[in-house]
Amino acid sequence: MLPLGALLVVGFTTDAGAFTLDNFAEMLGTPTYLMLLGRTLLIAFAVTVIAIALGWPAAWALARYTRPTTKPLILGFVIIPYITSQLLLIYGFVTLIQAGGPIMSLLSAIGLTSPQSSIMYTPLAAILVMVQESLPTAILVMYSASEQIDRSVLEASRTLGAGKGFVFTRVIWPLSSAMIGVNFAITFVQTVGAFAEPAILGGPSGQMLGNVISSQLSTGVHQQFSVAISLVLLVASLAIVGIVTGLLGWSRRAISGVAR
What we know:
Elements: H1 2-11, H2 22-28, H3 31-64, H4 71-78, H5 86-97, H6 102-109, H7 123-148, H8 151-159, H9 164-192, H10 196-202, H11 209-219, H12 223-259
């Protein structure tokens, strides 16, 4: 709480140490910053949803259809990004999507792109690399959720004639929604503050608010304003996380009420 308290003090003060709201008024009154805020929240939301959508089936397969002797090995591969430098991961991804790289060469071979095309320096490139970085978290959290679902509950549902869609919406979703909320919060919060990925891969149209905060702090000029931007981003992020987790809780309660 001490660093957050320090940010609150700095964000509401002037260079002379007097109380002010001008830092927030400048940020909220500038269309460019509001546009960057909206883009940042939208990109973080998209990355989070894509990562969970890709990670959940992988986690389910790992929990349900993988031999116990093989699970530790696969989980070991999943956590490798956690012990690898973030910059190495980013530049490793660059080699895949740059012109002439494996991915772009494959797309060119099947006629989807031209031989020298690339998605480098586009918002799509930044989104893809952040999805790659978020997948381990999504897989590990949803693996825990999948492991906690009693197999006998699923077997009983199928024995009573429930189809796959019914089992997912009435059994798997309510039992997993709490962990989906945890997964969303972790992934969204760590993505919304990203600045290295947009700086390297995003190009002019893929910059996020974290890039503005980083550049403002690096200059050492008017740091109170950069702190105010950070606090606005923090509040907006917490609001979205609260809304999503609230909707997930509501869906769980609604489905449970229907089931009764």
